[in-house]
Specification:
By secondary structure, the chain is of the alpha+beta class. The protein has 2 domains: about 80 residues, PGBD-like superfamily/PGBD (Muramoyl-pentapeptide Carboxypeptidase, domain 1, Orthogonal Bundle); about 160 residues. Helices cover about 35% and strands about 20% of the residues. The radius of gyration is 20 Å and the shape is elongated.
Length: about 270
């Protein structure tokens, strides 16, 4: 795999605890995962501020997390406990994925990420932050770092690597929809929306959709997982229930490609 930054998100440098010699970045990691856990388990009392300060609120949130998992409730986070906290990320990137071909591997990899609930956080008043965003964006985060293409490339990279392939033979490492769109035009891999509307058989699961702003300007992307009539089913990052290009989660969405300017980038050369 080319995109391996996620591995750094699975580790803290030292045991962290209240009144200890703490590392602020590690404490923020812990607080981030406590909040991500709270999103899926809102009654557990693990939501707390993300400020790098291991104070009484963070300690209590850790104790509540330990209580939920029926383990020693000491409020201390060592690497073993942090591995439990960050296990959704490890499962997303490292759980075995099967498929009969690369298209199936891409779809199944995207579905595996989806079920582990990738979600961004707001840290220091900056959206597009947190361990999931940094993992998809190779350490980058913050309001300006839209992460939909980072998610797409992480999925294709992970799936391609199962077959010993390098996704960068298909496209450059980038966080830009425009870069991938232009690459698609240059390599004749991009099907324009006008053609896709009249010949939907061109659209295949595992391909990348790119939503047009103007002819050579695209602002959102994701993975096509199925085509049903006028509808494409997708898994996409940095979106929400409204289909925003700057949402907060990875979601399974339905898009009417015959009513939107959606171009399609074929992954065929990697097959």
């Amino acid at each position: 795999m080319q995109k391996t930054f996620y591995q750094k998100e699975l580790i803290i440098k030292n045991t962290q605890q209240r009144n200890g010699a703490n590392n602020k970045k590690d404490v923020e990691k812990i607080q981030s995962w406590l909040n991500l856990f709270a999103m899926q388990n809102p009654n557990t009392g693990t939501a707390t501020g993300i400020d790098g300060d291991f104070g009484p609120a963070t300690e209590k949130a850790v104790i509540n997390f330990q209580k939920f998992h029926n383990i020693s409730q000491n409020g201390i986070v060592d690497q073993k406990l942090f591995s439990t906290l960050s296990s959704p990320l490890k499962k997303a990137f490292e759980s075995p994925v099967s498929g009969n071909n690369l298209r199936e591997l891409i779809v199944n990899t995207a579905q595996n990420h989806l079920k582990n609930h990738p979600y961004e956080l707001v840290i220091h008043n900056q959206s597009n932050t947190g361990p999931w965003v940094r993992s998809y964006m190779d350490g980058h985060e913050g309001t300006d770092w839209f992460w939909c293409m980072g998610f797409v490339q992480a999925i294709i990279d992970q799936a391609a690597s199962i077959q010993g392939k390098n996704f960068k033979t298909l496209m450059p490492l980038t966080y830009s929809c425009d870069t991938v769109g232009v690459t698609g035009l240059q390599k004749k891999l991009l099907t324009r929306y006008q053609t896709a509307r009249t010949n939907p058989s061109i659209i295949k699961p595992g391909d990348i959709f790119l939503i047009q702003k103007t002819t050579n300007d695209w602002f959102h992307t994701g993975i096509v997982t199925a085509v049903n009539g006028d509808i494409i089913e997708t898994i996409e990052g940095n979106t929400n229930a409204d289909g925003s290009h700057n949402g907060n989660a990875v979601m399974n969405r339905m898009r009417n490609y015959k009513q939107s300017k959606i171009d399609f980038f074929s992954i065929a050369p990697l097959l």
